[in-house]
Design a protein that fits this description.
The complex is a heterotrimer of chains A (about 130), B (about 120) and C (about 325). Chain A is an all-alpha fold and about 130 residues long. Chain A contains 4 helices and no strands. Chain A starts with a helix and ends with a helix. Chain B has one domain. Chain B is about 90% helix and about 0% strand. Chain B has 3 helices and no strands. The longest helix of chain B is centred in the last third of the chain and has 48 residues. By secondary structure, chain C is an all-alpha fold. In chain C, helix 10 runs parallel beside helix 13. The chains are: A mainly alpha (about 130), B mainly alpha (about 120), C mainly alpha (about 325).
């Protein structure tokens, strides 16, 4: 039984440390990369992989009980929520940055299509207002 | 007696590991804070704050095992919910405000252009 | 109303004039004085922009922004001073923390008769496993009633200040309802469709378990309010109004406050006069136990959820 306990400590500790390592890589990426959309790529890694590794390590430490279930819930919630928040942030960046072409390739046709759609929407709403 | 000593040794290892992890995470949090202060664009700051939220979640989970208080995990869950909500609402509101400002400026320049054409 | 005379003849009598004068339904100026409706003052966007430019020019000339060395120095010193102030404040607070008594010391000032009473006899007297919620909802229920009233009055004040009148609302509804924001984001909507029910269930769990585990009305209500805000930011105000509009808001909020008042006043009156109250405490640990804590928790949760959502909606568009 004691050996099993030590094995548990080793496995859990290894998972926890790998989670911390991923956080470290995330930090490196966030200082190394030059633009927000690239930095977001690094930040999303810690939000999904880093926290899932470290929480799985903590789950192994705590054993089978209610706390483990709640930790699992946190990981599942973050897997749902973090990609969506990155999506919203990317949308914020793209729609508020005026000289986006400096940093990345922009497809002309798509942006034109979006502009046309926006104008149509504004026209429709203007008609409703009057 | 021997068994007890061994168990306490295991507990000591656990405790020192938890405290070490907490210290490492705190140093990382400071680095994130530097990015949040320096970040040139608004999206930079929000990304950094979101990262800090993730690290704080891990810290709370470690604390709940260190102090053996299961209810701290509930706080962790609420923290995840609130950080998600904050990022969504802030980005939506900021896009709305920015496009409204842009729309006003465009309308102003258009009207000015029409007036100058009429005068000339 | 049945009258002997037909309407036209009745209008010629003095009684008709008298009652019309009494009720004030006749406007003495209509038909007597020539009037034109007043035009609303229009301020165009171009004039606003011109004014802004002019004020900027004046500021430039007065302060000479580009060449003013004092101003540049001030900006640099300001940044340094702000950072210094923050660091000093943090240091000061940490220094104060180091003077606090250690946790668990028997000579601490918080170890007195009151806390001993709460800890030793709290479970018997309130029936709540969670000492904190037993304390704030039975021993100090009057304080909590005041806090709930504060929430109610705060939303009332925000409503008085920010609520848009109905006529103007109809004009500006589209403009206020996130005209320029990204609408119908499919990814966000899909995620919220999955997550929102879970968030609501989690909030209800925290409210109902207030006397058994940490949590209670305030935190559970905040979670439900956050879920409502998330739903609104994904789907828009129109879809939220299908299940939560002004009418339901009024009913929920006032019912919660009145229920708290009724339950609380019964509790205070019996307690103050030494009368035995007939609320069963139940067995500690069960969901239906611990007397008045569970219904009061539900009332507080409703109140807090309504307050959170009302603040959000009022600040966003000036109406629920």
């Amino acid at each position: 039984m004691e050996i099993l306990e030590w094995v548990r400590l080793l496995v859990g500790g290894a998972l926890l440390l790998s989670g911390l390592l991923i956080f470290l890589i995330e930090l490196y990426g966030i200082f190394h990369l030059k633009y927000v959309l690239n930095r977001m790529h690094a930040a999303a890694m810690g939000d999904t992989l880093g926290i899932s590794f470290s929480l799985i390590g903590l789950m192994i430490f705590s054993g089978l009980n209610f706390v483990t279930l709640k930790m699992m819930l946190i990981v599942i919630f973050l897997w749902f929520a973090s990609p969506v928040s990155s999506h919203m942030l990317a949308r914020l960046e793209v729609s508020t940055n005026e000289d986006l072409k400096k940093h990345c390739q922009v497809y002309e046709e798509l942006s034109r299509l979006e502009k046309d759609l926006k104008e149509e929407k504004i026209k429709e709403e203007g008609g409703e207002e009057e | 007696m021997q068994i007890n000593e061994k168990v306490s040794a295991l507990d000591g290892v656990y405790q020192s590991m938890y405290i070490g992890i907490l210290i490492i995470l705190a140093i990382m949090l400071f680095a994130c804070l530097i990015r949040a202060v320096r970040g040139p664009r608004i999206a930079d700051r929000i990304v950094a704050v979101n990262m800090m939220g993730t690290m704080v979640m891990v810290m709370i989970a470690v604390l709940s095992l260190l102090l053996k208080e299961g209810f701290l995990i509930d706080i962790c869950l609420i923290y995840a919910l609130v950080s998600f909500l904050a990022v969504t609402v802030i980005s939506k509101v900021y896009i709305g405000v920015y496009t409204e400002k842009q729309h006003h400026i465009q309308a102003g320049t258009k009207r000015k252009g029409e007036e100058s054409n009429g005068n000339s | 109303m049945s009258r002997l005379k037909p309407q036209k003849e009745y209008e010629k009598t003095g009684a008709f004039h008298f009652f019309r004068w009494l009720s004030g339904s006749k406007d003495p100026y209509v038909g007597e004085i020539e009037m034109q409706p007043q035009k609303e003052a229009e301020i165009q966007e171009t004039t606003i922009l011109e004014r802004m430019k002019e004020s900027e020019m004046v500021r430039d000339k007065v302060y000479d922004v580009e060449n003013n060395k004092v101003l540049k120095l001030f900006h640099k010193v300001y940044v340094v001073a702000a950072i210094l102030f923050c660091v000093v404040l943090v240091g000061l607070l940490l220094y104060t923390v180091s003077y606090l008594p250690r946790i668990g010391n028997s000579a601490n000032p918080d170890n007195n008769i009151v806390s001993e009473r709460y800890i030793e006899q709290g479970l018997q007297e309130t029936g709540a496993l969670n000492i904190v919620s037993g304390m704030i909802l039975t021993y100090r229920a009057f304080d909590t009633f005041g806090e709930t009233n504060v929430l109610f009055i705060a939303t009332c004040c925000v409503m008085i200040l920010l609520m848009v009148d109905d006529v103007i609302l109809k004009k500006q509804r589209i403009r206020n309802d996130r005209r320029f924001e990204p609408k119908n984001d499919g990814i966000l909507q899909g995620t919220v469709f999955v997550l929102c029910p879970i968030i609501f269930i989690f909030g209800i769990y925290i409210i109902l378990n207030g006397h058994l585990s940490p949590g209670g009305g305030f935190s559970g209500g905040a979670i439900i309010g956050a879920g409502l805000m998330l739903y609104t930011s994904a789907y828009g105000f129109e879809k939220t109004q299908r299940f939560f509009d002004e009418h339901i808001y009024k009913i929920a909020k006032i019912t919660a406050l009145c229920m708290y008042g009724i339950i609380g006043s019964y509790f205070y009156i019996t307690g103050a006069n030494g009368i035995e109250n007939h609320i069963p405490l139940g067995t500690p640990g069960h969901i239906l136990s611990s007397g008045i804590i569970l219904p009061i928790n539900i009332c507080v949760g409703l109140e807090v959820a309504c307050t959170m959502y009302a603040f959000y909606a009022l600040f966003r568009r000036g109406g629920l």
